[in-house]
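User: Show me a protein chain along with its predicted structure.
Assistant: Here is one chain, sequence first, then structure tokens.
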Amino acid sequence: MKKALIRKLFREKREKLAPGETSRLQDLLLIRFQQLDMPFIHVLHSYLPAYGRREPDPEPLIRYLGFRNPGMQVIVPRVNPGLETLSHFRLEENTQLELNAWGIPEPVDAEEWPVDEIDLVIVPLLAFDQAGQRVGYGKGFYDRFLATCPGKTVKLGLSFFEPVEHIEDTNTFDIRLDYCVTPERLYAFE
């Protein structure tokens, strides 16, 4: 299947999720994630979900990782309009957030953080395949960002749905996931 069709199908699948079902799937994501043997995480980078898209919310995983990794820093992105890139900022309890043009919360006045210190990135996606390729929202922000991360950085996706068999139109600029967590299982990619 090609990315455009996958985007359409998986947006429709998300829209059909009832609120109670979303909560159940969120709980299962956390349970599956807790089965992953992760090294100590000093710096975690995560997307903030666009509420209304019925995206998996990484916040329960962030809380769990904060408990397991005392002193862990949480970094979140902000889009650089016109550049199609992301900047990265430390998220604290008092960090002010504003919605961008896509309805995604972004930090307003926060400390910028270097990419080379990031240990784990929770990557947004609509779908993924059995080889760890992902379909995002189509702007390429995360592929450009992930290409700048050090080799040690773990790339992890969250999905309410199981993978498609194969994404036909991947290219050399697409960055594969190391792991993807679904309510059913944990996927590891080499």
